[in-house]
Each structure stands twice: as structure tokens, then as C-alpha cells.
Amino acid sequence: MTAETLEGLTGAAELDAARRSQAFSLVARALGYPEGPMLEDICEGRIAEALEVTLGSQIDPPLDAEALRDGLEDDELAIEYTRLFDVGVSGPPCALHDGIWATDRMKTMEEVLRFYHHFGLNLDQDRHELPDHLVAELEFLHYLAFREAQALQGGVDAGAYQRAQRDFAERHPGSFLPKLRAKLEAHDPPRFYSELFRIIESLVVETAGG
Q1: Among 95, 140, 173, 194, fewest CB within 10 Å belongs to which?
Q2: Domain boundaries in the chain?
């Protein structure tokens, strides 16, 4: 789920929607497996710089750019990603799937898919991702914010995109991110992930109207 670049925005509401769209796109990408170009973007500060430009002073406390540049050494960040998000006797300690935190995972996945399908979206089958993965949910919020900005720019009613963002953010990532962050902090995460999840939760809370 991706959207093309927005250009020529002028109004405050358009720019705010575009900011949210870009921010969700950045954090979704940063939450991918840290290898190759992604790891280079972390270590060379491109992720930190892009988030600083996009979010400015709207994160409180201010964004910790140094933490977002800390890719550790060699393959250490990848090892930490696997430890926290991929493995465990009963599943990963910090599961990134929405439904794992819910009472009924199948119902959660079905509801998430209904949101996606309502807006004509399908998951990328080549990525073999499940609909309730946090990255997919963040990409969906990126898409909705993009369409909101596009509608506002064209003088079209953006209400459907605005309502969907609030509802989806509250019902899905917003419902489990506080628990996920608490579990993450209990497992001594690298400061990159500690700061990244703080930013993600702040964006989701803002979008949900919290």
C-alpha cells in the first residue's frame, strides 16, 4: 500500500495531512528488518533527518535524533530485531501483530481487511505479510492521510479519509501500542527501537484524536 508524491500543497490542512502521510510512511519503513539500504539509512542519519524535517517540534519531548542514528555495529541491530520481534518459545516477546494482543485474532484480521478493502486496497502478496502486522497498519494510515491531503487539495470532501484515520488508529494500532511499548521497554531494547516506538505511538495517538 503506497501512494505517489504530493506536490503544490498550500493550505494548512493539506500540509498537515501530508505531514502525517509522510511520517507514517517513514516509521513504517524504519520498522522493517534492519539490513542493506535500510540499515545504511539508519546509520548514516537519513531516517533521523527525514523524521526531524517531517515532524519538527511536534513530538514532545523532542525527537532524539542520536537514538535514531544508532544502528549499533555489524549485524547487532538485526539480531536485536529478531530477539524482540521475531522469535520466542511462545512467540516473540514484543509481537508486531495487532491480533496477538486482541482476544480474537481472526476477528481482528477480518476487521482490518474490511478497512483495506473498503478503500480498494490489497496486501502485497510478494511481501507475505499478514493484514494485522503493524507495518501494514502504519502504511494504511499513510495512505489515508495521503488521500486526505489529495482531496483537500482538489477541493473534494475529505471527511471519509479523516474519519477512517481516526477510527482505524483508535481501534487498531492505538489499541495495542501502549502494551507493546511497555513490553518492549521491559526487554532492554536498543535505543533506536525505544525512540522509534515512542514516535509511532505519538503519531497514532494524534491521529486518533487523543
Answers
A1: 194
A2: 12-208
